[in-house]
Each structure stands twice: as structure tokens, then as C-alpha cells.
């Protein structure tokens, strides 16, 4: 394979290859299997590893990169929970007993009851995840497995976050990342704060587990053997693992043995690392230091769900928002992590379940554009036809509360439901376009709610950076800018999650002293989208935002009224007997 004079190449898995200037040389993906049954969503680690191997080979081939040019690699993946036995073989986490199904996917909500019971104990560790664990975190899921799948529970030797498992599968080193353990496992990363800096890079003995917490919630057996099942040692993201790529993994991936592999990141956090320093000179603040400037930014990693990442030098406790997490994304900064559990997934749901969708999808395909691009064009036509002052005003009678998969932040209410206000019998493509726009706006108001809530509690966020699939939709980004009043910076390389994973490889290969240095060198800004300067647009969104907030308050009132009616009905029935 000719490499055409390519220098050092960093590989990020999710799979993308980047040069020493942070430019994407090539990327590839490979489909993975998923099983869905109501609240239970499962995957297979074996299947995912095979997909990773196929995608790495494909990306190298497409980019014309030879194995010897790849000098470092890092893994980023969803914060899904992997179960393996002493031999590293999969252990089922499924009611089906199917051993392939050994991953509880991040969005799985089977453990809502377990999360409520854990939160009722008010353990001190909970203040570091917004006051309570989410059913999307690992402790409730682990408790669910123990209570429901006893045979599997006794067989599991290692419980791992997916990105940590991928790094373990590649290197044989089961050191865990401060990102995964702190964000999803209630590990107290700041236990290392006084002892180590990132520059000391080493495996650190896992001294941040709160053993009392695990015993109180009924999972004391996980702290046995120096926490062997959940992590004996942890490291800063990008720390080189073991002796690099093992010969077996190297052969499977089509790479060379011994390539440095960096300690992993959750995919959304890799997006943060891949974009947070992507600030054009025109947007940089001359009057404040670099350390202060980064604290004015929030990264939106917009995909199936959206994660809202902000960092601070001081720890900020924000009710209903995850964190503060020490060194979980940018080393030696505290991370605040907000989120919306369904954004891209919600837009897909709204569009695909509308009567006009099949015909519209055919029209889009015939024009070689996505259905979303076609909807954006329809909205522009409607703006002219209806002679409204600005596109956003088309939705004056349609309001959406986007909590179709609960509210992660800032209400931390997994039981919250979605609301659409203003439906008619219309089934036209124009009606679908309105519903699509109102849903984008509802998601935007959710982001505004998170930003305002964080700023009330000590953040100073005034600039957003966006990456991920939804960031390619300029209508989505413009609505978010108008709704939040913040400029939104898009990165030069939209595949920011891949770049963040590649940063880990670059740091592991000692090309940079640390993650922040690599970010400054490899992040680069693209387009900046500014809020509308039209005062009518601001007034319109301010009014719709108040309606958005009221939809949840109404839902709470309805929930309470129905619970009371059912309770009184049960009491009346009992007294009749």
C-alpha cells in the first residue's frame, strides 16, 4: 500500500484516521446488532469487536494508510455496560439467556426502580451526579442484574464500560478510565486530586470507590478483591495502556503489535475533546486567560441523544445535572454534564411515524437529499407562501415538550413524557414540516433550560460548540442559536468524536504532553452561526420558551391528579369490602 508521504497517523475508534494537523484522512463504519424489547436494549461485545476490526481495515484502505503509519490509537464508545467471565467470554444480561447479548445499552431503562431505591438512600456520592443516579448509569443496572439474573451475576468476572472493554480487548490491560468510572460508576475521581497530575501519567490504584455506598445499595460483593470486578486501577484519558496493541488484537485489526493505545473516553466526551478548543481567532477572548476562556464554552454533542458538556476550575454542584466530575473529560478540570435522552432519535420518531413520511422519503431519495433537507426546503417555501416575518414563526400554534424518553437534565425525571400541543387532522407534508420544526424548537428550549440552569449555579456559558450528526443540519443549529442567544461554533472536522478518540492515541504515543495540548493543536474551527439580530425572533422564542416550561408543570399537575384519583378509588373499593 502506497502512503504517499503520509506522516504519523492517529486512529480514533469509532473509526477515523487523522494526520498531525487534526485533518480527517478517512473514516469507516460497520453495522452492529441491537436487540430491543420494551425498556431492555442489548448488544453483543463480540459483534462490536468484529465491527471495529472491519471498520479499521476499511478506513485504512480508504485513506491509503499503511499499518506502520498508525502510531497511536484511542477508543471511544457509548457508556454501555459489558459483562464478561474469567476467560473474557460474554455473559448474558438478557432475560433471553442468549450469551451473545452481554451488553446493557446506555439508553436501556430497565433499572428505573433500582435507580429510585438507590437515590432514596441519599448517599454522599450522589451529590457528584446531580443529586441522584439515572437509570442510564451503571449502579442501577448492576443491581437489576443481581436481582433478576442471579446465574449471570455469579458468572461475571469483569463489569466494564464499553470503551474500557474495547481498550482491554486491544491491550489486555483492564485499567479503567477516569471518564467512564467517574461519569457512570459514582467513582470519586477527585480522590486523586492531591496526589497526581496528568503529567505524572500512570495507572493509579482505584482509591475513589465509596465502599459504604456499594454495600448500602446491596452490591457489597463488587468491592471484594480490591474492586477487581469494577476496576482496581484507573488512569487519565490518553494514558498508554499495557504494552500497547497485543499481537492477537493487532492481527485482527490489521495493525502492528505494540502501537500505543490510550485510556478511553465515552463517545460524547470524546466529542467534547474533539471540539472544545475549536475557537476561531475572532471568537477568542483577549481579556481572559486560556483557563478561563474554556470555562465560557459548552459543547453540544448532538446525535441520537444530546450531551451538554461544560468545564470549570472549581467544582459546581448543580441539581439535576450530572457532575461535578473531576478530570472526566479535560484533565484537571471539573466537568458538568447535562443531556437530553432523545434528540436525533426523537426527530426520527416524529418524522417516520407521520402519514406523509413515505411519500416525502421517496421525493427526497429522487433528489438525492435527506428527508430533513427536504423538510427544511418545505419550511422555507411555507415562510414565503404564508408571508410570516421569519421561519420560526410558522409554529406559533404548535408546541412540543421533547421528553419522549424522560428528562435527563435539568429536571432529572425519567418518568417525564413527551407532549405535542396543537394537533389537527392535517396529514400533509406541510404539517409534517411544522411538527418537525416545533420538535427542533422544543429540543432547543431544552438546551436553553440546561444552559440557564448551569449559569444560575455558577457557570458563565456564553458560547456553544456543536458536533455530531444533528450539527450538520443548519436549521437545527440556527434555531438553537436563536433560542439560546449564543453563537454556535461548528468544528472544521465534523467527526469530532473520532478526533477526540484520535487525541487519546496521540497522547498515548507521547506526541503531546497531555490531552489539552493535543486539543489545542488538533481542534480547528469551521463555520460560526450567530443568533438572529431581529428583535421579533427573540421575543417570539422567549414567549414559546415560557409555554415550553409550562408544559412540564401541567404534566406534573396531571400526574398528581390522576395518582390521587386512583388512590381514592382504591380506598373506596377497599372500604366497600
From TrEMBL:
<dbReference type="InterPro" id="IPR006003">
    <property type="entry name" value="FGGY_RbtK-like"/>
</dbReference>
<dbReference type="Pfam" id="PF02782">
    <property type="entry name" value="FGGY_C"/>
</dbReference>
<dbReference type="GO" id="GO:0019150">
    <property type="term" value="F:D-ribulokinase activity"/>
</dbReference>
<feature type="domain" description="Carbohydrate kinase FGGY C-terminal">
    <location>
        <begin position="299"/>
        <end position="509"/>
    </location>
</feature>
<dbReference type="GO" id="GO:0019321">
    <property type="term" value="P:pentose metabolic process"/>
</dbReference>
<dbReference type="InterPro" id="IPR000577">
    <property type="entry name" value="Carb_kinase_FGGY"/>
</dbReference>
<dbReference type="Pfam" id="PF00370">
    <property type="entry name" value="FGGY_N"/>
</dbReference>
<feature type="domain" description="Carbohydrate kinase FGGY N-terminal">
    <location>
        <begin position="15"/>
        <end position="272"/>
    </location>
</feature>
<protein>
    <recommendedName>
        <fullName>FGGY carbohydrate kinase domain-containing protein</fullName>
    </recommendedName>
</protein>
<dbReference type="InterPro" id="IPR018485">
    <property type="entry name" value="FGGY_C"/>
</dbReference>
<keyword id="KW-0808">Transferase</keyword>
<dbReference type="GO" id="GO:0005737">
    <property type="term" value="C:cytoplasm"/>
</dbReference>
<dbReference type="InterPro" id="IPR018484">
    <property type="entry name" value="FGGY_N"/>
</dbReference>
<keyword id="KW-0418">Kinase</keyword>
<comment type="similarity">
    <text>Belongs to the FGGY kinase family.</text>
</comment>
